[in-house]
């Protein structure tokens, strides 16, 4: 007997909630802000906008559906089911945060503050949810996957970062799809999707005035950039950017302890040690974004 669908409402704690949790009471949070030339009015307004959006979305979920709520900080412990429909209520980055934990479940992005959020991944207003649950026109966005030689795996919607845990130089051997290899010392490596090429990867692309054609969000391709590669007698700077097709692999062999995390979630990272190999490629999994 099949289970009814489950609507999973994903959101992050508002700045007001975080401040009150940190300082104990609303009055103490207000005093803290006053000492820094701010007050609670703006935070109240943003908190109210999110709460109103959550209430509107919750009311639109059919009565015979199951429901669950997950905060951003709990996503790495939340168990998603195959029958789930995920409704992300917040900033564009919230969709990227949840995408890495999904396996084909559709995602509806809701923008509670259109004056603040661009709405690239959260294009819909809260009152559109009822119609979206019925129509479900889905856009499949490319994701990136990093896999270690001992079977660990990490998915990301925007980009994967490989580098040192602190600000020290990352040391590794890089092997490109063309069979070119180079030992490098750098500030780390970014491998991003077309969705991610509007963010961190685009910053690297613009800074070096790269002539690479960045992939689009639906293209089965990735772009990669080495950050601040250092030339020395033992390390080179010849291979610092490129594009990966769906058949390509970018291979990193660690020559120091390195971390690998996706979409800025450092708390949910892989660690590779000296001699371990990491392969990065286009993921079979796609984000199914409801449009």
Automatic annotation (TrEMBL):
Q: Which UniProt keywords apply?
A: Kinase, Transferase
Q: Which GO terms describe its molecular function?
A: kinase activity
Q: Does the keyword Kinase apply?
A: yes
Q: Where is the signal peptide?
A: none
Output the superkingdom of the source species: Bacteria
The record's listing under InterPro entries reads:
ATP-NAD_kinase_N, ATP-NAD_kinase_PpnK-typ_C, NAD/diacylglycerol_kinase_sf
The membrane spanning regions, by residue number, are none
User: Gene3D superfamilies annotated for this entry?
Assistant: Probable inorganic polyphosphate/atp-NAD kinase, domain 1 (3.40.50.10330), Probable inorganic polyphosphate/atp-NAD kinase, domain 2 (2.60.200.30)
Q: Which PANTHER family match?
A: NAD KINASE 2, MITOCHONDRIAL, PTHR13158
Please give the name of this protein. NAD(+)/NADH kinase
